[in-house]
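dumping this here so i dont lose it
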């Protein structure tokens, strides 16, 4: 995700060996261009030689992150057993002067209950290119638009139908073109009737307005018609 105030950015997906498992987001600022590389070493299929070629670009500062699916003493516990094939990516990353940002030995992955005695490891890693980047900060707050669910089974059917009939009767007196009438009916009649009579439930809304959330939905009842979701009002 890129903030909409960032103007100069682009996304490039890898081709060849790393297609589908390596994607690069390039963001240009007044200082320099930052290349954020996201990788997923699915079934140990990531080609690290090709990745190394990408990291050799001297015109960009590189940030590499993702799921390595590899264990190594560089980032795992001191007594951890390195995964077969882990030495090659370590060599490639070292040659490109990539600096590990994870705290070595801190497990960030567990299979099963994190508090139980289950296997833990550090496979999700972040690296940066030498001294060009002093800090990496990621804002994980995602602003979502208002998301509504229309509760059709609570709609007063007769009032809904009267509204539609009244607006359609007025339109037939104003238009000769059937096509023009169809377009206006779709835009005004159903939209207006839906807003007027169909209760909605707020599923999510922007963070700053959550404290003022309200619901127009009556007490829950067994649904008698399919529910639909839409974004916006």
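and the seq i came up w/
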């Amino acid at each position: 995700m890129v903030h909409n105030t960032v103007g100069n950015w682009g996304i490039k997906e890898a081709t060849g060996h790393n297609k589908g498992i390596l994607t690069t987001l390039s963001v240009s600022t007044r200082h320099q261009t930052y290349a954020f590389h996201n990788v997923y070493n699915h079934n140990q299929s990531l080609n690290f030689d090709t990745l190394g070629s990408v990291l050799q670009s001297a015109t960009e500062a590189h940030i590499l992150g993702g799921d390595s699916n590899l264990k190594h003493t560089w980032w795992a516990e001191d007594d951890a057993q390195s995964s077969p094939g882990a030495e090659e990516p370590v060599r490639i990353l070292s040659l490109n002067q990539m600096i590990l940002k994870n705290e070595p030995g801190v497990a960030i992955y567990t299979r099963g209950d994190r508090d139980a005695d289950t296997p833990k490891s550090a496979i999700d890693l972040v690296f940066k290119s030498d001294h060009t980047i002093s800090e990496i900060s990621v804002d994980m707050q995602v602003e979502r638009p208002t998301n509504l669910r229309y509760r059709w089974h609570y709609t007063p059917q007769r009032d809904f139908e009267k509204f539609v009939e009244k607006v359609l009767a007025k339109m037939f007196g104003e238009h000769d073109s059937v096509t023009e009438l169809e377009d206006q009916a779709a835009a005004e009649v159903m939209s207006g009737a839906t807003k007027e009579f169909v209760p909605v439930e707020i599923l999510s809304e922007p963070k700053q307005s959550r404290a003022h959330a309200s619901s127009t939905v009556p007490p829950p009842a067994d649904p008698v018609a399919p529910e639909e979701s839409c974004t916006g009002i």
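The longest helix spans residues 178-197.
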